[in-house]
Amino acid sequence: MAEKRSTPKIEVRTATTKDVSDLIALSAKVFKDEAPYTRGMIMGQLSAFPEGQFVVVYEDEIVGYAATMILPEAKVMKQHSWAEVTGGGYAAMHDRKGDWLYGIEVCVDPDKRRLRIGKRLYDARRRLCQDLELKGIAFGGRLPGYKRNAKKYGTAEAYLEAVRKNELTDPVASFHLKAGFEPEFLLKNYYPIDVASGGNGVLMIWRNPYYDPEHSKQPVNRSNPDIVRIVTVQMQARKIAAPQEFYDAVEYFVEVAAEYEADFVVFPELFTLMLLSCEAEELKPEAAISRLTEHTPDFVERMTAMAIRRNINIIGGSHATRTEDGEIQNVGYAFLRDGSVHAREKIHPTPNERQYWHIQGGDPIDVIETDCGPVGIMICYDSEFPEIARRLCDQGARILFVPFNTDTRHGYLRVRYCCQARAIENQCYVVTSGMTGNLANVDNLDIEYAQSGIFTPCDFPFARDGIAAEASENVEMVAVADLNLSTLMWARYEGSVRNFRDRRLDLYRTRWSDGG
User: Fold this and answer.
1) What Enzyme Commission number does this protein have (predicted)?
2) Residue 207: which of 126, 272, 263, 287 has the closest Cα?
3) Where are the beta strands (DSSP E) in 420-509?
4) Residue 137: helix, strand or coil by DSSP?
5) Which among 107, 129, 345, 346 is annotated as catalytic?
């Protein structure tokens, strides 16, 4: 079966002149009580700083826009108005020699707010800020809750302080605080026609931790493009009355991972077998696996929607899928936050899978391109064949995901030891996710044993025992770790040992049937 890949449903990119009409329409939809942006304003922004204007496209429709420019610190850190600092919205004050990225505007389609469009735009700004090595990001934020609370708090300063202390929620300022921005000071008469804010704004800032030495000791977070945050789910098998119960349980963990601001959340091999527990009667293995394949379209649709809605990449464990040639294969799915879907077949079905479920082995072994770089999927038994991990790492993968499903400690340890070996010999990260518990009414899934983990190479920069994070045995929980890709590359080129580069390719190599 060839790779199954759909085109992205949601994309963040820089704006172009072809987008101008759509951006005018979007601003008119967002700012109903104000005049929308004019063509001249948007053209001015694009002309002044083309790489700083971002759009979010969802199903071929522009649903978000962020206008940005660069300003010197002296202008940012003093009282100013929106019209003054942005040149009336044209970005005319843009200064390439400046040291702060300044936000002119963010527009989000009110009908698409559940897609975390604003967060995607702010993340794009952070990446740009770091790429340009600027001090940070600044903008004048609104305080739309001030007017209705003015009698209680008196001054805008007092209101802002109450919001900062989380004594009340402001629709805009609270979002900025949660997104990691800090209030610097109140901007008087920042935007006079903003009646709800009393004309006030608040200078919100985010300091680039890789510019300001005072912030170099802060905990690493997703704002560093070299850091990939992983949440692996050790999931409890549970009997369900209807498929919705299964998807509710899955979405709970997806939401938890999104709240941790993870880049990836990982689920176990064949976790969709829980969908069979709501059948009227227990099915024999071959009939059961055939019935499970009927859930594939719904499974793909629901998981894709979760990835988009929560702005997270989901490694959707694996699911029995009937392929185009009519065979049933154990397929691992990656549901990326841009809405694209990637399928990877299990290359080596276990003897049990072949005997009871007649599952066939797949063919292609290729990486998946993500916004965190290439990654690979090896499903359970595949991790016990070193050639697969080596091919994926040769193709650029630095993180390998291993959904697994084992019934005994012996089986689990085979997967674990091999995954740790793959991490060492390829100097990469390996993430495992397994199932626990049992489903008495699903044939051939009687008991399960798991201790999911996130494994690293063994060298000075990594955890002492090569374990970045680990779940407790046979308990439903998650394990979380930040994986540093630059540290991984250091290990490959300067580590105590350099397994990945020190291969004797003059003596041996693996030759694949496709010529690779």
Assistant:
1) 2.3.1.-
2) 126
3) 429-436, 453-455, 467-470, 477-484
4) strand
5) 346
Q: Spell out the alpha helix ranges (H) of 331-396.
A: 351-352, 386-394
* The one catalytic residue among 380, 418, 419, 458: 380
Q: How far apart are CA 374 and CA 172, in angstroms?
A: 36
Q: Tens of pLDDT along 457-480? A: 999 999 999 999 999 999 999 999
What is d(CA 167, CA 163) in angstroms, rounded to the nearest whole number? 6
pLDDT at 7: 63
User: Hey, what's the torsion of the CAs at 183, 188, 190, 196, to 10 degrees?
Assistant: 90
If phi over 0 gives left and psi between -120 and 50 gives alpha, with beta otherwise, what is residue 238? beta
Catalytic residue among 105, 269, 345, 353: 269
Look up 269 and say whether it is catalytic: yes
217 pLDDT exceeds 80?
A: no
Copy the structure tokens of residue 221: 């977070």
CA 253 to CA 234: how far, in whole Å?
A: 10
Three-point CA angle 225, 367, 320, nearest 5°? 120
Rounded distance between C-alpha atoms, residue 32 and residue 306, angstroms: 30
